[in-house]
Structures are given as structure tokens and as C-alpha cells.
């Protein structure tokens, strides 16, 4: 059976049993080409697919999934989900009213280059990096792509699907100059293979890692922090859950009573955009069929919305925002699509520290209290320019205080898929605590 045929079968069987059913099916394809030592060290291609159901019977909700698309397996998964539902105590479950959602190809011909060209890209990336005599070892140079197909159908009328994906180049290597050694990586990601250029990726790696060689210890103190996009997204990632309505309901978000209140600088706006022209996680609808839209979490520093699925929206008396999240193996949750820091008027370097990299993000941040203490790398800014690299320091504080101290936001977005899927410009924060030598 195809995924769509399996859904049709499950809907028919669910109606025969008198239960409400939602079938979420996904298929994925992955290609990874890794170069090392002038050869392709690893070539991996994999495909997978599965279908997960959520059933509601007597107000009780149950889940089950299968990766085998046969009538026998689908009958089992329906029976398993019904049995799991009957074991639940809560009887306030429901499936949202659905609609025809259409079929959407968000990827087009973006990944359609020949495999031989993709192999050459991985090999070329390694060669370009090795041209710099400061490079002591290349861990790997990688070309990879990820393609996803999502299909949704329910007895409440939801029906639709979409295809999405992206490609990326990544290199990790060690650079050295005298006794100073630094390991770094560079990642470039796009929905279009043609937008990835090995020479450009290599040059960005060499510049960003090479500028950190010869670093000096940083004296402890409070400095203006100029957080590069990658660093700011890394810092923001552990705290995104504060905007999840599920976290609000569970009493795990300090933003629970802050709707309509100013909690950040007026120059700071944060929104989720599932239809951005460069978005890497665009989606026309969420995991339960709610059409997606741009949602502002913070607009000019004011808390404007939480992220909702249909269940959290009903409990809090709000409208669903299109942020239901579920894999075919999982249960209903809440998650953003493309989280974006809105570009601002620009950042002008004066005096402080340019923070380029953060380490130990999830271990050093408390998403409930907002406290963080993170190891960092960067450059000392003096006289309006990055004067020299610094190391052996941490930045610490509370994310709410940090958001209040944002004084400027840059103009140019940079995308990342490392800690979260999103984009940010440079962000300037006044009076941040640095613990150094």
C-alpha cells in the first residue's frame, strides 16, 4: 500500500468501529556523502516510512503506529490505539474539525542535481579547506540532503499532504597557528542544491575559525555583547519552550501570565513563520490539519501569543495557531516551524565582546527559571572593530534580563538548523556578565 491508501483503509475501518481517527503518515529520504582524505569515506542513502494514528473513543485518546503498510498491520494498529485509549483516565479528548488541505510541493526541483555533482561538492569542500596551511586536520567534509513527505487524514474531514526538504554542506576541521589550536565547523543549508558553493563554505569556515587563533584570556567583567546570529540562536533555543501553551498549562513557563506585557526591549521582535521564502521547515498545515500562519511571540518586546495545538487552545480559551507537532511514532505536542528574530536597524560595533560560539547550551541553561551560564568564544571589540580573539570565558545571566537589555538588532538574517530551525541577525546586548581569567 501507499501511505494514502493506508490512510483510506484506516479511515474506513475506524468508521466501521465507530471511533474518530486521525492518521499521520510520513516518508523520508536521506542522502549523506562524506569526504575525508581525498575520497568519499561514507555514502549513505536511506528511506523510511510509517503511519501513526490518534483515536478518540468515549472522549478517551489513544495512539499507536506501524511501519508495515498491510491490512493486517493496519488492523492491529487501530485495535492497539483503541485499547490504549480505553486505558486512559482522562475523557476530554477530541479531534478538531478538518477540511480539505490540498497537496503542496514545497521543494520542487531543489534537490534534483545528479548524485555525481553532489559527490564532487563534498570532495571540493575538503580540497578548498585544505588549501589553507593553517588547517591541520579535516574531520569530514559533508554534503547531505533530507526530503520529507507528510500525509494527514481524519474522520473529521482533514485531508492533505506536502513535500519538503533541504540540502546542506558542513565541514569540521582543526586549525593551528603556533601553539594556538582551534576546532570549528561551518554549516550552509538551503532548499536549493545550486545555492551551495563549496568554495564559499570553505572560505567562511577558514575566516570564522581562523580569526580565533592566538586568543587571549578575557578579564571578568560586564561588557556589551555582540552576539553573532549562530550564537544568539543557540542561546535562544533552550528557552523557546516558554512560548509553548503546553508548558504554560503544565506550570513550566514564566510567561504564563505575561500576555500583553512588555518583557523584552522594544527593538526586539520574535515570530514564527511557516511560509518564509527561505524557510527550511515551511509547512502549509500542522500535525492535526490546522492551517499555519505567521505568529508573533514577541512584538516590539510585548508577549503577543503562545504556540497552540487544538487541545491547548481549548483549555486556555484561545484559537489554535497551527503549531501541533507529532511524529508518526509520537503523541501530540507543540513546536515552532521557522523561528525568526526580526531584522532591525543594524548593529554598530563600539566596545565590548563579539560572541561567536557557545558551548554546552542545553546543560548550561534552565528553561524554566531562565538562568544560563555558557562557555563561549569570541573577539574583543575595541575602537569600533574586532581587535583580537578571546577565550576561557563564560557568559551568564537570566534570559529575561538579557531580552530587556537588547539595544540593537542587525539587518541581515542567517539561517541555522543546529539548535533550532530559524534565522537571526546579530543582536547587541548591553551590560552582560562575562566570567573570564
- Apparent shape: globular
So how many helices? 8
Structural class: alpha+beta
Q: Which spans have pLDDT < 50 for at least 5 consecutive residues?
A: none
Task: Please provide the count of β strands.
Answer: 22
Mean pLDDT: 96
Distance between the termini: 63 Å
Q: Encode the helix/strand succession as letters.
A: HEEEHEHEEEHEEHHEEEHEEEEEEHEEEE
Major sheet details: 7 strands, mixed
- Strand share of the residues? 35-45%
What is the alpha-carbon Rg in Å?
Answer: 24 Å
Helix content: 10-25%
Describe this protein's structure.
By secondary structure, the chain is an alpha+beta fold. It contains eight helices and 22 strands. 45% of the residues are buried.
Topology diagram in text:
Blueprint: H1 3-17, E1 20-36, E2 39-57, E3 60-66, H2 71-86, E4 100-105, H3 115-130, E5 135-154, E6 159-177, E7 180-190, H4 198-210, E8 216-217, E9 221-227, H5 229-236, H6 245-249, E10 270-272, E11 295-299, E12 302-303, H7 310-316, E13 324-325, E14 333-334, E15 339-341, E16 352-359, E17 371-382, E18 385-398, H8 399-404, E19 406-409, E20 414-416, E21 422-424, E22 427-435
Parallel strand pairs: 4-6, 8-18, 9-16, 15-21
Antiparallel strand pairs: 1-2, 1-5, 2-3, 5-6, 6-7, 9-22, 10-11, 10-15, 11-12, 13-14, 16-17, 17-18, 18-22, 19-22, 20-21
Helix pairs in contact: 1-2, 3-4
Amino acid at each position: 500500500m501507499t501511505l494514502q491508501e493506508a490512510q483510506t483503509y484506516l479511515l474506513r475501518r475506524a468508521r466501521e468501529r465507530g471511533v474518530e481517527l486521525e492518521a499521520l503518515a510520513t516518508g523520508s529520504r536521506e542522502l549523506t556523502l562524506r569526504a575525508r582524505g581525498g575520497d568519499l569515506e561514507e555514502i549513505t542513502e536511506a528511506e523510511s516510512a510509517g503511519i501513526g494514528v490518534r483515536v478518540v473513543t468515549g472522549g478517551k485518546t489513544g495512539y499507536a503506529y506501524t511501519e508495515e503498510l498491510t491490512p493486517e498491520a493496519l488492523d492491529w494498529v487501530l485495535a492497539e490505539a483503541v485499547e490504549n485509549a480505553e486505558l486512559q483516565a482522562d475523557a476530554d479528548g477530541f479531534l478538531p474539525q478538518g477540511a480539505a488541505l490540498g497537496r503542496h510541493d514545497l521543494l520542487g526541483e531543489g534537490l534534483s542535481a545528479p548524485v555525481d555533482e553532489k559527490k564532487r561538492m563534498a570532495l571540493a569542500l575538503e580540497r578548498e579547506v585544505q588549501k589553507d596551511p593553517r588547517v591541520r586536520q579535516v574531520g569530514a567534509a559533508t554534503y547531505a540532503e533530507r526530503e520529507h513527505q507528510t500525509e494527514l487524514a481524519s474522520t473529521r474531514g482533514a485531508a492533505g499532504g506536502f513535500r519538503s526538504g533541504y540540502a546542506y554542506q558542513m565541514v569540521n576541521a582543526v586549525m593551528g597557528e603556533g601553539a594556538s589550536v582551534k576546532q570549528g565547523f561551518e554549516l550552509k543549508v538551503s532548499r536549493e542544491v545550486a545555492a551551495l558553493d563549496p568554495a564559499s563554505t570553505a572560505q567562511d569556515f577558514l575566516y570564522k575559525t581562523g580569526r580565533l587563533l592566538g586568543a587571549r584570556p578575557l578579564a571578568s567583567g560586564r561588557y556589551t555583547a555582540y552576539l553573532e546570529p549562530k550564537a544568539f540562536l543557540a542561546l535562544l533555543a533552550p528557552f523557546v519552550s516558554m512560548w509553548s501553551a503546553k508548558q504554560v498549562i503544565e506550570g513550566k513557563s514564566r510567561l504564563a501570565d505575561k500576555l500583553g506585557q512588555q518583557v523584552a526591549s522594544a527593538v526586539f521582535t520574535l515570530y514564527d513563520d511557516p511560509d518564509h521564502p527561505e524557510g527550511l521547515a515551511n509547512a502549509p498545515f500542522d500535525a492535526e490539519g490546522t492551517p499555519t500562519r505567521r505568529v508573533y511571540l514577541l512584538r516590539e518586546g510585548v508577549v503577543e501569543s503562545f504556540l497552540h495545538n487544538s487541545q491547548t487552545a481549548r483549555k486556555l480559551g484561545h484559537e489554535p495557531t497551527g503549531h501541533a507537532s507529532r511524529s508518526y511514532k509520537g503523541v501530540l505536542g507543540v513546536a515552532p516551524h521557522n523561528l525568526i528574530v526580526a531584522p532591525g536597524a543594524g548593529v554598530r560595533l563600539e566596545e565590548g565582546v563579539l560572541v561567536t560560539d557557545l558551548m554546552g547550551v542545553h546543560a548550561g541553561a534552565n528553561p524554566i527559571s531562565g538562568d544560563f551560564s555558557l562557555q563561549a568564544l569570541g573577539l574583543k571589540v575595541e575602537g569600533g572593530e574586532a581587535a583580537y580573539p578571546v577565550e576561557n570565558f563564560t557568559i551568564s545571566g537570566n534570559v529575561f534580563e538579557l531580552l530587556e537589555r537588547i539595544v540593537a538588532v542587525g539587518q541581515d538574517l542567517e539561517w541555522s538548523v543546529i539548535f533550532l530551525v530559524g534565522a537571526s541577525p546579530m543582536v547587541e546586548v548591553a551590560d552582560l556578565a562575562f566570567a573570564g581569567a
